[in-house]
Amino acid sequence: MEPQKQKTEVKIYTIHSQKGGVGKTSVALAKAGWVALKEDKKTLIIDGDITGTSLVDIFSKEKNNVRYLNELLLSDPLVFRQYKKEPERVGSDFCIPIAKHKKIFFMPSSSIFEDLKIIVALISQEERLHFFRSRMRDILELLAQNNFETLIIDTPPGLYGMSQAMREIKFNEIEKYKFKKHSIFVTSPDRPDYRALFSTLSQIYVAINKEVREEWLKANSILFNKFSAAGSRNPAFKLTEILSDLKSLQEKRKVDEKILDKLKDTASLAEEFDIEQILETVNHLINSPESREHPTPFQKWCLEIEKI
Ligand SMILES: Nc1ncnc2c1ncn2[C@@H]1O[C@H](COP(=O)(O)OP(=O)(O)O)[C@@H](O)[C@H]1O
Ligand SMILES: [Mg+2]
Predict the structure, then answer these.
(1) pLDDT tens per residue, range 20-70
(2) When you count CB atoms within 10 A of the terminal residue's CB, does the N or C end of the chain come out lower?
């Protein structure tokens, strides 16, 4: 019998939220910083927030001929087949290296109004989501063939549509790669936001098979973000308040106990910060370990993201 070939593991983080502006893109960047700069893994940030991208302004500003995720998602099957024949073209044409940080690359999505109009109309149609799910899976497999070891996908706000398609991607057990998925759900401490998130997560949780629930809990994290921005002086106190509010919701809307337990994962207590400083700050924390001893609030926030 042939010896079993060692599979290459590819880690995928998908980042989700109910509302916009809660910190998804910040989390995507910080996570990319930790895996690429500390674990030395070739990492790609995929800007899947096709409804309201912000990364393109940061990383593609000096670049001409930018090609977008939109094109890969929407291309005709015949055109897409060419990429399957020459996977390296996906790496060379669509993945922009972030010059200052080796090992981190970025795949932009388009913020051009005409492009937005087309894709938003399509992803809003329930019956098209299976198409996006399988196309996205094909894209991720092509990226694995470009030797990316970690793929971080920033998704649009709202847990349905594109966000759902990204969460539900199933991989072919292709010979060489083993994909391992982790989803991070970001919420603000605003009541309607976290309540909606916990209700939705509970529904997802109870709908899955009992045998795989433990595994599901391990593969999903919840992050409360922007406490200070919400005006809370004492985030620890605020967290206790949120927990008791969710307990009352538990009775009404059947939020599962195990989902409430996930609150423990959480809490990020930063002052306002500049998203463009995230990679620099993570890099600094890695290269000057003494800065971990008395971190600023922003550095503390970055350290929280290392753990999830
Ligand atoms: N924990 C935090 N504390 C303070 N400001 C934050 C925090 N997280 C994100 N921000 C800021 O909030 C704004 C929106 O964050 P962003 O990551 O773009 O959110 P999203 O991708 O969910 O729309 C950015 O200006 C970012 O710098
Ligand atoms: Mg964003």
Answers:
(1) 989 999 999 999 999 999 999 999 999 998 877 777 777 877 677 889 999
(2) N
> In testing the pocket of ligand 1, which one of 226, 238, 298 has its CB within 8 Å of the most ligand atoms?
226
Ligand 2 ion local residues (Cβ < 5 A): 24-25, 49
Which ligand has an atom closest to residue 52 CA? 2
Distance CA 188, CA 226 (A): 6
**Angle (CA) 73 79 80, round 5°:** 45
Nearest atom of ligand 1 to the alpha carbon of 274: 27
Nearest to 148 by CA among 93, 82, 91, 108: 91
State residue 51's pLDDT score.
Answer: 79
From the CB of 281, is ligand 1 less than 6 Å away? no
Please state whether the predicted TM-score (pTM) of the whole model is above 0.85: yes
CA dist., res. 223 & res. 217, Å (int): 14
Determine if ligand 1 sits within 6 Å of the CB of residue 135. Answer: no
For residue 280, CA distances in Å to 47, 265, 277, 299 come to: 20, 25, 5, 10
Residues in CB range of 253: below 8 A, 6 or more apart: 199, 202
Nearest listed ligand to the Cα of residue 304: 1
Looking at the predicted structure, is the pLDDT value of residue 286 above 90? Answer: yes
Cβ–ligand 1 distance for 230 under 6 Å, the answer no
